[in-house]
Write the structure tokens for this entry.
Amino acid sequence: NAGVTQTPKFQVLKTGQSMTLQCAQDMNHNSMYWYRQDPGMGLRLIYYSASEGTTDKGEVPNGYNVSRLNKREFSLRLESAAPSQTSVYFCASLFSGVYEQYFGPGTRLTVT
Amino acid sequence: DQQVKQNSPSLSVQEGRISILNCDYTNSMFDYFLWYKKYPAEGPTFLISISSIKDKNEDGRFTVFLNKSAKHLSLHIVPSQPGDSAVYFCAASLTGNQFYFGTGTSLTVIP
């Protein structure tokens, strides 16, 4: 089992460029999450998907869109990147009824 | 507004002694609390959790205490080992859908 995988590991974008962060899990989990981690801010929830076909906003959804492509995959899209979106992005998943989340290794994004 | 707070950014402890990490929360509707451990350049990994209907949960060297009246939880690690050096995040759940994380406490265990 690979667990939760994220691609890419690193990315540098110019302001205004777009990109999609990919996340996949092979644990048959129902729920998937996207977080961002900024210095002094902890992890903040961007979007989550409680099941295939549903998505909901978290604490900081502005500037992002998500797609739950199937049960395994949950992508995060930045349509027009801004320097304020420079962060480390983590994807996570969990099995419904069990509160423990499994996290991917993260994507470090820099927007210049 | 931060609903889960970890007011100590860092903590240093001698090997073999007890480490106590603290976490405060504001939302009385949180139903589950978790601690995660994070090493640099890795994702957080689950450590231990506690339901809001309990006040203590133990797993080996790790014990989590919950004081609902004070809206406070703590993680005790005893004895502390150098491999425990990491950043520790507490997290709180609303119905198992949304999770709120603290800002983390960096623990250094000195050999």
Observations:
- The longest strand of chain A covers residues 31-38.
